[in-house]
Amino acid sequence: MISIVRIIVFTFLFFALVACTQKEDNEQAAMTPWGTVVEPENDTTAHYSINEILQSGELRALTISGADTYFSFDRAQLGVHYLLCEQLAQRLGVELKVEECSDTMEMVTKLRQGDGDLIMLSLNKSVSAADSLVFCGPGDEAAQWAVMEYNKPLADSIDSWYRPELMAETQERQNKIMTTGGAVQCHVYEPVLDRGKGVISQWDDLFKTYSEAASTDWRLLAAICYQESCFDPMARSWAGACGLMQIMPTTAESFGLTVDRIFEPEANVETAAKIINQLTMLYRDVPDAGERMSFVLASYNGGHGHVRDAMALAEKYGEDPFIWENVSEYILLLSQPKYYRDAVVKCGYMRGTETHDYVDRVRERYEEYAGVALGNAAYTVTESGGYSGVKTEPTRRSGKTNKYQI
């Protein structure tokens, strides 16, 4: 009997020891990429701790749209705070996911609900519920990024990574990008290959083949292509847009074009035709085909969401939202807080000068390709939004490799 009791006791002690060992292993402190030890947390809520962020591979940042926080430019994302947070995410070895909020209250609410890991802007430290926030990283004594107090190890990690010089360096980097106007590294070919034979480029057959899929005139495809890449199939922008029609890799993949084929001329043009057709369908509510073309071009460059925001603003202020001249005014005004923070605006800040100029340049080039002199009334608008008329001599460029400003 004594032996049996001893066996039972030893068995119980053995399993208890194993359980303790496993618990210690599970609660072992994690190490961030720069050597900061992250102690195990006892938080039992649904919120993500830094350990869970590292394990999930995703850092969720909350912000509001603005020139210094987060905005779209030339098919890419900018904003000094966004670029800083992107560096933080790279340092952590995770992907950065950004969610735009309408105001400070929404950001704090989402953070407290666990719908984000940090507030990615200099949040005023006097905000309500500040006693549940921990401030860290970029900012000063009055305002900094913020995380929830249960996630203080994340705040400590941010503080150990951030140094004041990063803000100035990142601002300089953004200024350089903005002042280049979205440079594209490409070979600048002549805008018309052989006017006498009616040949615009060596890619004319591709434009003609996929013009039907794009629901537009093949010469408009040619005009877009020249504006995007100067007919160079190997062109690449600072933001990563690729090929003849300057398609972003993520966009290409969403339309079934793999990254390894993105520079192939036919695959690139075919995908651009699909994108243009989709945009054309999105503007079926614009009754005039000629006006519709401008909305499609603006969306190809600046994004459908921003163009719809400008249309909503035009309508709010009593303008016809289906006339591009009216809407283009609000494309420009979306860089001002009064407008990009308006309740009807969904996509926030936009640097609209590039998109405004893009539409003008492509349409001017198209008129040249369609043989129409600017200001010449002797042309008609086709149902697809194209033009027909007399030919004129286009502007010519010298052929050389450079950074072409679009």
Overall description:
The protein is an alpha+beta fold and about 400 residues long. It has 15 helices and 14 strands. It has helices at about 1-25, 50-55, 80-90, 105-110, 150-160, 165-180, 205-215, 220-230, 250-255, 265-280, 290-300, 305-315, 325-335, 335-340, 350-370; strands at about 30, 35-40, 60-65, 70-75, 75-80, 95-100, 120-125, 135-140, 145-150, 185-190, 235, 380, 385-390, 400-405. The strands form 5 sheets. It has a 5-stranded mixed β-sheet with strand order 6-3-7-9-8, with helices on both faces. The protein has a 3-stranded antiparallel β-sheet with strand order 11-10-14, with no helix packed on it. α3 packs across α6 and α11 (about 290-300) crosses α15. The longest helix has 25 residues, at about 1-25. The chain is globular, with a radius of gyration of 27 Å. The relative contact order is 0.10.
